[in-house]
Design a protein that fits this description.
The complex is a heterodimer of chains A (396) and B (404).
Chain A lengths: L1 H4 L16 H29 L5 H29 L6 H11 L2 H10 L6 H14 L14 H20 L18 H8 L4 H4 L6 H6 L11 H13 L6 H20 L6 H8 L3 H8 L10 H21 L6 H10 L1 H14 L3 H24 L6 H9 L4
Helix pairs in contact in A: 2-3, 2-11, 3-4, 3-5, 3-6, 5-6, 5-7, 6-7, 7-16, 11-14, 12-13, 12-14, 12-15, 15-16, 15-17, 15-18, 17-18
Chain B lengths: L1 H62 L5 E5 L8 E2 L7 E2 L2 E10 L2 E12 L3 E10 L4 E9 L14 H5 L20 H22 L8 E8 L11 E7 L4 E7 L5 E6 L6 H12 L7 E7 L4 E6 L8 E7 L6 E7 L25 H11 L14 H19 L4
Antiparallel strand pairs in B: 1-4, 2-3, 4-5, 5-6, 6-7, 8-9, 9-10, 10-11, 12-13, 13-14, 14-15
The chains are: A mainly alpha (396), B alpha+beta (404).
């Protein structure tokens, strides 16, 4: 059992094949992020420059910001190695450690999660929280409990969101010219309007096609749904991630959103589609819910993990202080990775027995409770009478 | 040192890199944030220009039937002082805010000036369309104003009034513009704007304004009882290339009204120029003489107060020495705050409606040799009118007593 739950991850699946090593895995992970990075640069830099709304130097900033995210993360980790390892302080040793630690990745992901106009010092603070607090203090790569980038993102979000807003916020210089956006991202509009209405949630941003392409306001890396899907396909084909985890996560959000829309009197597929293409859901599902260290390792555990993520994301979107629910649900579920792994490993190894059955039932009940609570809490956007009407009709 | 760098070089490089990222990255992100404001200002400017252009196109459609496009153009700086309408010593400078060249195809056919003048109040903004072919105004339009926009005042400037500008040629020495009674200051403000626009047009397009040679050597109140009722002002003028002299009378609106000494061979332009120059002299038109009876030593005077429909009529009876007021009476239609309407303020001899507290108080102060104070509640219209009347009366007394 320990081989499932207690080992250092990610595991070397075929240890004697260099193409399947951890290095290769992380290289492929970086490649998977390339479309997202390029799209973030295109949408917030190149396109805005071509439209004549910014200068050349401003056009380079999104790319610079992402590179600085990765670089600062790596430098901080290098300094940490230097301070904590007095025996081996030579260049070669530290560079080797950085290479094996994939120090760039938390900083890059963090940069992609932040708005364009985040001041650099805020990015550095986030990188510090991600790398030093979220990763190195737990023992470094493979030992961290929380997704480092996510920890940095939440630290910034909880403490410095006002600074980011006053520095320019999330809108690029083409988006600020669009009156229809009214200064809000799609999820921000839902949070403030509390109405499920195509005219209010989608029409100001064009159509769902814009949501799919990613030409809507949002943090640097979160809007490019198409680019994220390309990354997802690459990572799935290369078997860097389990293809089913993002699908189950996103699917859960889709179904729950459809139910909420139906209760609100609009059973169309536009609202669930809007829900999965808005905010950081796809980005989180592909690049963070599949992270090998902080998520369950066996297939059943991944499924349970993804289902809970979906339910919690919907819940936090309707009860949280922020429009987004992905970050919070991921960080919460990071805590339960170990028990989920343990229980699912028991079931997988020993089949369904009395003890594991009870635990399984408990998990299902908790999941159902979260889903029901999510539906009830989303009542802020539909009338209670409509919900009762569905009960009366025997639909629920 | 070498050993130190060999041992600590890596961390120093890393730390230095982080510091550089913090410093230069910080500058970069600060630049980005600053640019947000810059772009917002640029956008606001673009929107303002778009609005300006839309306004210019709308004016073009009204004034230039052949026009099909406008472009913003630069102005030649021009500063000219004009007397604020209704004031005797306060000046203002009209400002051409913007101007647009009007095109028919690629051919420039005219110009639109947006000028800000001063009527009864500042901020009287007007648009003028001027035709290049005829150097004449095609039309004017009031864009905004702070005038008293009621049936009694600014609205008196109706279509008939504005129609006089259509076709008004700049190629004449004096622009003949009729003012409108009851909206005197507003129409004077528009007249000033028109004169200034011509100056601007002349500066921008090397247009030569025809010149009339008129020198207003002196203009003063007419204190001659035989003529002062019909001719409140008298002017000493030198005119024409031969520097001819004439002493002429002017009406209350400074229009030429007769010859005192000399021969009247003045052209209409010269008479208008006399009027324009006299209007800027600062002489008050708030009061004027009615009649003088030598036998009874009775002088009737009139003043224009708050009520435009009626004048304030003051009758003075002078003492035997003709150097002081023996008695006076006031016929007034002015009305004041209720505190001035009690019977105690009524003056013996007063015969009109209302209570002429202000008039009586000010005349009494004058008669008693006291300082004539402003009176709260009548400081804008009636007070200045009575003050003007008393100044004029004072001049008349002096004239009766050999200037003393």
């Amino acid at each position: 059992m320990a081989r499932f739950a207690g080992g250092k991850a990610p595991y070397l699946r075929i240890a004697d094949d260099p193409s399947k090593s951890t290095n290769a895995l992380m290289r492929d992970f970086l490649i998977g992020m390339f479309p997202v990075i390029l799209f973030a640069w295109y949408k917030n830099g190149i396109q805005v420059y071509l439209e004549g709304n910014i200068a050349f130097l401003e056009m380079l900033y999104p790319l610079f910001f992402i590179i600085i995210g990765g670089l600062s993360s790596m430098l901080m980790e290098g300094i940490f190695f230097y301070i904590t390892n007095k025996e081996n302080r030579n260049v070669k040793g530290i560079m080797m450690k950085l290479k094996n630690s994939f120090a760039l990745i938390p900083g890059i992901i963090l940069a992609l999660l932040l708005p364009l106009y985040t001041p650099i010092w805020v990015l550095l603070f986030g990188a510090f929280m991600a790398t030093i607090v979220g990763k190195m203090l737990f023992g470094g790569f493979g030992h961290n409990i929380f997704n480092p980038a996510l920890l940095g993102y939440l630290a910034v979000g909880f403490t410095l969101s006002g600074v980011i807003a006053s520095a320019g916020g999330v809108f690029n210089q083409s988006e600020v010219l669009v009156d229809a956006y009214a200064g809000a991202t799609p999820l921000g509009t839902l949070a403030s309007s509390k109405q499920i209405s195509y005219a209010a949630l989608v029409a100001p941003y064009g159509s769902l096609w814009n949501f799919f392409l990613g030409t809507i306001p949002g943090a640097l890396g979160e809007t490019g749904s198409l680019a994220i899907i390309i990354g997802y396909l690459w990572l799935s084909i290369r078997k860097v991630i389990k293809w089913s985890t993002p699908l189950i996560y996103v699917g859960t959000v889709f179904i729950l959103s459809w139910l909420i829309g139906a209760f609100a009197g609009d059973g169309g597929l536009w609202f669930p589609t809007y829900s999965i293409l808005s905010g950081g859901l796809l980005f989180g599902a592909v690049f963070m819910a599949t992270e090998p260290v902080t998520t369950p390792r066996n297939p059943l555990g991944k499924i349970i993990f993804a289902l809970f993520l979906g339910a919690l994301t919907v819940l936090f979107r309707f009860i949280g202080n922020f429009p987004e629910g992905v970050g919070t649900s991921l960080i919460v579920m990071n805590i339960f990775t170990m028990p989920i792994d343990s229980i699912s490993a028991q079931i997988r190894a020993g089949g369904i027995r009395k003890q594991s059955l009870l635990k399984g039932i408990m998990i299902v009940l908790i999941l159902v409770a979260i889903i029901v609570y999510s539906l009830i809490k989303s009542g802020t956007i539909y009338s209670l009478s409509a919900l009762l009407g569905w009960f009366k009709l025997g639909v629920m | 040192m070498k050993a130190f760098f060999a041992k600590n070089g890596v961390v120093l490089v890393f730390a230095l890199a982080l510091v550089l990222i913090f410093a230069f990255g910080g500058m970069y992100s600060r630049y980005m944030t600053d640019q947000v404001e810059v772009h917002a200002e640029e956008e606001a400017k673009r929107e303002e220009e778009a609005l300006e252009r839309a306004m210019a196109l709308e004016l073009m459609e009204t004034m230039f039937p052949l026009g099909d496009d406008v472009t913003r153009r630069e102005l030649t700086p021009l500063e000219i002082d004009y007397l604020i309408p209704g004031k005797s010593s306060e000046y203002f400078q009209p400002q051409v805010e913007k101007s647009f060249t009007v095109y028919a195809g690629t051919e420039p056919i005219g110009v639109i000036y947006i000028v800000v003048s001063h009527g009864n109040k500042p901020g009287l903004k007007l648009a003028y369309g001027i035709d290049f072919a005829t150097d004449s105004i095609l039309g004017i339009s009031v864009i905004e104003h702070s005038e008293t926009d009621t049936a009694s005042y600014f609205q008196k400037l109706d279509e008939t009034y504005y129609a006089q500008f259509s076709g008004l040629s700049f190629d004449t020495a004096v622009l003949a513009i009729d003012s409108v009674a009851g909206a005197t200051y507003s129409s004077r403000g528009i007249e000033i704007a028109t004169i200034f626009v011509r100056e601007q047009y002349a500066s921008d397009y090397d247009f030569e304004i025809p010149v009339v040679i008129v020198n207003l050597n002196q203009v003063d109140y007419n204190l001659d009882p035989a003529t002062f009722a019909d001719h409140p002002f008298v002017a000493d003028v030198t005119y024409g290339t031969e520097a001819k002299s004439i002493e002429c009378y002017l009406a209350l609106d400074f229009t030429f009204s007769g010859v005192k000494t000399g021969v009247d061979d003045l052209t209409d332009d010269e008479k208008l120029e006399i009027k324009n120059q006299a209007a800027g002299s600062g002489l008050s038109t708030l009061s004027y003489f009615g009649s003088w009876d030598q036998n009874t030593r009775t002088l009737v005077m009139h003043a224009k107060g708050y009520v435009t429909r009626y004048t304030i009529d003051v009758t003075f009876v002078l003492n035997a020495e003709l150097d002081a007021i023996e008695s006076y009476s006031v016929l007034s239609h002015e009305s004041y705050d209720s505190e001035y309407n009690s019977a105690e303020y009524a003056t013996p001899g007063y015969s009109g409606p209302g209570v002429p507290y202000v008039e009586s108080m000010m005349i009494s102060q004058y008669r008693d040799g006291d300082t004539v104070d402003s009176i709260a509640g009548a400081s804008q219209k009636t007070g200045p009118a009575i003050r003007s009347l008393l100044d004029l009366f004072d001049l008349f007394l002096d004239s009766l007593n050999g200037g003393e």
